[in-house]
Write a structure and sequence with these properties.
Blueprint lengths: L2 H13 L4 E6 L2 E6 L5 E5 L12 E5 L15 H7 L3 E4 L4 E4 L15 E2 L4 E7 L2 E6 L4 E6 L6 E2 L4 E7 L1
Parallel strand pairs: 3-4
Antiparallel strand pairs: 1-2, 2-3, 5-12, 6-8, 6-11, 7-10, 8-9, 10-12
Length: 163
């Protein structure tokens, strides 16, 4: 993989908002991870790689050894749980939608009272629209994601003050 191919790959991952990617081809191993901490690309190849575009840094390392990851800072959801709030988490990986269709009003907003089983949002996964329902009755205190944002399995979506 040459520098041009690597740059095109990184540009594609940024464009599609892909946060983690790994590729193995023969003795070449490329791993890109983007997020709150700076992303690192690990390559095990005989030729050195020139500096990659920001925010991705390129580094040479053996495929077996990867540098230890820094500890993640405390998430706002953890603080919400400590304050007695119930956190609704995504049961699947997908794209978060706050309304049933573009131009429609959102299912809920901060300050709304919700009942058990009430639809809070939709998470699209593989072209399937999955309605996420409230598992507790209470008041929406915080929305932890924004419309059209990719969400991970177990990611906090809402903070609800139980009633």
């Amino acid at each position: 993989m040459n520098q041009k191919e690597l740059k095109e790959l990184i540009d594609f991952l940024v464009e599609k908002d892909i946060t983690e990617f790994e590729l193995e081809r023969g003795d070449l191993k490329v791993r890109v991870k983007r997020g709150a901490e700076p992303a690192i690309v690990h390559m095990a190849a005989p030729a050195p790689v020139a500096a990659a575009p920001a925010p991705v840094a390129a580094a040479m390392s053996p495929a077996a050894g990867a540098p230890p990851q820094a500890a993640a800072p405390a998430a706002p959801a953890e603080a919400a749980e400590e304050a007695g709030l119930h956190i609704v988490k995504s049961p699947i990986v997908g794209t978060y939608y706050e309304a049933p269709s573009p131009g429609s009003p959102p299912f809920i907003k901060v300050g709304d009272t919700v009942a058990v089983g009430q639809v809070l949002c939709i998470v699209e996964a593989m072209k399937l629209m999955n309605e996420i329902e409230s598992d507790v009755a209470g008041e929406i205190v915080k929305m932890l994601v924004t419309n059209n944002q990719p969400v991970e399995y177990g990611q906090s979506l809402f903070a609800i003050r139980p009633r």
